[in-house]
Amino acid sequence: MERVSDQQARWTQATVYPDMWADPDDDPRNSEGNSPDGELATVQDFLAGYRMTLLMKCEGLDAEQLARRSVPPSTMSLLGLLRHLVEVERDWRNWLSDGDPLPKLYGERDSDFHRAVAEQGEVDAAYSDLAREQAATDAALAEHPDLGERVGKDGVAIRELMVHRIDEYARHCGHADLLRECVDGRVGQ
Q1: CA distance 123 to 42
Q2: Could you tell me where the Polar residues compositional bias lies (predicted)?
Q3: Sign of the four-CA dihedral 7, 62, 167, 93
Q4: Residue 4 domain-assigned (yes or no)
Q5: Residue 28 resides in a domain
Q6: How far apart are CA 21 and CA 15, in angstroms?
């Protein structure tokens, strides 16, 4: 059984605010000026921030650390989260289409987590897959700039898809906070 003394020490790289991931001047999510104008630009800005946060929570870790599971019986890991979001991005494109769904990349249900193994090739593939699938979903949604437009066989509104994307990334960034702290003790916003 793990004792309190065996746990990772909590730490942050921030020097100005001890509860932050990085100092505000060094945080790439901070931008100068006003927030974007308009609903579409606003949701895209929030999504970009959560995507960046997820990648920040994974940076600096090796394959073993990224694939490290949280606590049994959970299969959740940072690598699993990256792979899961690859599958989720593909699935959102299915909502836009009337055709057959895109096949899963990592296999049957939950293989994105179950098969997240500590191999650098798997890590590299996950990052590459995520960038590719995000770009493909962004491009597909760019064809529908009217957030009220209803698409696909279920007639889902583009607004709902965009908000669901933010929700999905935000929820998993919360998981990533805890997973990262378990790996090396790093905490912060």
Answers
A1: 31
A2: 1-15
A3: negative
A4: no
A5: no
A6: 10
The β-bridge relationship of strands 150-151 and 156-157 is antiparallel
Q: Specify if 105 maps to a domain.
A: yes
| 88-145 confidence digits (pLDDT tens) | 999 999 999 888 999 998 888 777 777 888 999 999 999 999 999 999 999 999 999 9
Provide the CATH number for the domain around residue 144: 1.20.120.450
- What is the span of the domain harbouring residue 65? 40-52+59-184
Q: What is the DSSP letter of 186?
A: B
187 contacts 7 by C-beta, under 8 angstroms: no
pTM, to two decimals: 0.87
Number of structural domains found in the chain: 1
Quick check: is 21 in a domain? no
89: nearest Cα among 106, 66, 64, 65: 106
CB contact at 8 A, 92 and 154? no
Where b means 16+ CB within 10 Å and e means fewer, 116-144 reads beeeeebbebbeebbeebbeebeebbeeb
Angle value at C-alpha 63, between 62 and 66, nearest 5 degrees = 85
Structure tokens at 38: 């308009």
What SS3 class is residue 22? coil
pLDDT digits (tens, 9 = 90+) for 7-21: 567 766 666 667 767
